[in-house]
Design brief:
Mean pLDDT: 91
Strand content: 35-45%
Number of strands: 11
Strand order of the largest sheet: 1-2-3-4-11-5-10-9-8-7-6
Helix content: 25-40%
Largest sheet: 11 strands, mixed
Order of helices and strands: EEEHEHEEHHEEEHEHE
Number of helices: 6
Radius of gyration: 19 Å
Length: 244
């Protein structure tokens, strides 16, 4: 993590370099951003795999790191949504049978492997091959021990997946959300999303955020109360590159 602090001790910007190689940033002032990137470039210990944040800031970071022309597996502008959980709207009914929420690991490793492979290819643009399979194994290993990833079970059939990819006492970030093609357009993701958020609200979480590039997914999020508050760029390089 790198932070830019002014003379009065106020944090003016922050940049983080994740274990996966992605740079996350929030530094609206161009001079602050320059200082952060310079500090990062001088001491980074791993390659850059991508950048996420405000679109103009992401472009500035890619330019300054000399990777703006690198081939991207994903380069998307996604809508940023937020929801105060006291405004959560629970959906009515379902087309399917009895709906139950279970921890993802209860769906079994084989099903999760198939689902995460589909999510990586469709949602994140990961190309089939050894790299994808390594990512899938790592993700599924995590899902088998985590308590913040769930599936919705319709009768005895798991039909969709939802989790939190970031959690603080007062806020959660939704992700991943995945419904296999055979189970789409039945409101399942909406039900699972609402159930997981209601449980978070009941334990004191006040707010949720998420990102989506999909108008269809946005409708499901809006149905439970999310509202768009901004735009977010996700630029994921096809191959990580060293910091120059």
């Amino acid at each position: 993590y790198w932070g830019a602090v002014d003379g009065s001790g106020v944090m003016r910007g922050v940049l983080a370099h994740g274990w996966h190689g992605n740079v996350l940033l929030q530094a609206p002032d161009p001079d602050v951003l320059d200082a952060l990137v310079a500090g990062f470039a001088a001491s980074a210990t791993r390659p850059v795999a991508g950048a996420l944040g405000d679109p103009s800031q992401v472009q500035a970071v890619l330019d300054r790191l000399g990777v703006a022309d690198a081939d991207c597996a994903v380069d998307a502008w996604e809508d940023l949504y937020a929801l105060p959980l006291d405004a959560l709207r629970l959906p009515d009914g379902s087309d399917g049978g009895p709906l139950q929420v279970a921890l993802a690991r209860e769906a079994g490793r084989d099903l999760l492997t198939d689902w995460i492979r589909g999510f990586e290819i469709e949602g994140l643009g990961t190309a089939p091959g050894p790299k994808l399979e390594a990512i899938v194994v790592e993700r599924v290993d995590g899902f088998m021990i985590r308590d913040d990833i769930w599936v919705l079970v319709d009768g005895d059939q798991p039909v969709c997946l939802c989790g939190f990819n970031a959690t603080l006492p007062e806020i959660v970030q939704i992700g991943p959300v995945w419904t296999p093609p055979a189970h789409r357009n039945r409101g399942h993701a909406r039900h699972l999303l609402a159930a997981t958020l209601a449980a978070a609200r009941d334990r004191g979480v006040a707010r949720a955020i998420l990102f989506t590039p999909s108008p269809a997914a946005a409708k499901a999020y809006e149905a439970v109360g999310f509202a768009k508050i901004g735009t977010y760029r996700i630029a994921l390089l096809r191959d990580p590159v060293p910091v120059r």
